[in-house]
Design a protein that fits this description.
Strand content: 25-35%
Strand order of the largest sheet: 1-2-3-4-5-7-6
CATH topology: Aminopeptidase
CATH superfamily: Gcn5-related N-acetyltransferase (GNAT)
Number of strands: 7
Largest sheet: 7 strands, mixed
Mean pLDDT: 85
Distance between the termini: 27 Å
Low-confidence stretches: 183-187
Order of helices and strands: EHHHEEEHEHEEH
Number of helices: 6
CATH architecture: 3-Layer(aba) Sandwich
Length: about 190
């Protein structure tokens, strides 16, 4: 028997409460999340507050908390928005207890839909650390093309380096793939 699609809501960082932003910091600092991030140090309260303040009204970024009910289940964001050239980068993470339940699929479909709703936006870029197989698979399912690799990109705590795999999604590819993606409501 199939489960009903999970209801996911993207809450703009600017509308999040201080408690939700602090909950996001605790989630981001969990070792299993940090292991897949490019900047994987433990974030203190002051550093996190400074980051949140810098993102609230940043015209080159759209940062969201991902909510399932009232729980902060993750974060997704678009950064480095280059409006004249129509492209940006994105990143996301999902709490382990919400993984493999359709949360990532739903939040990312909503985020991509909102990105390409702007007629000037033509391409979304992503970088994924080698070994993050779930994220690599998700990008490929969403239609992101493999665009290369940056070897020896991130040094882990044990001294070993991991590559950064590069992906890109065009407006046209998303339009063709969107109907195949389930788990996120189109707005």
């Amino acid at each position: 028997m199939q489960r009903a699609p999970i209801q996911v809501r993207l809450l703009p960082l600017a509308r999040a409460s201080a408690a939700q932003i602090e909950e996001l910091r605790h989630l981001r600092n969990r070792p299993e999340i940090r292991a897949q991030l490019f900047h994987s140090h433990d974030i203190g309260a002051a550093e996190h507050a400074k980051w949140a303040d810098s993102m609230r009204d940043n015209p080159r970024a759209r940062i969201y908390l991902t909510l399932v009910g009232d729980a902060v289940a993750g974060s997704a964001g678009i950064t480095g928005i280059d409006a004249p050239n129509g492209h940006a980068e994105w990143g996301f993470y999902v709490a382990p207890e919400f993984q493999r339940r359709g949360v990532a699929r739903a939040m990312l479909a909503q985020l991509i839909d909102s990105f390409f709703a702007d007629a000037h936006m033509q391409k979304l870029h992503a970088g994924v650390l080698e070994g993050n197989d779930a994220s690599i698979l998700l990008h490929r399912r969403f239609g992101f093309a493999d665009e290369g690799m940056r070897p020896r990109y991130k040094r882990d705590g044990d001294g070993r380096y991991r590559a950064c795999l590069l992906f890109g999604l065009t407006r046209e590819t998303w339009a063709a793939r969107r109907a195949e993606i389930s788990g996120g409501e189109r707005k």
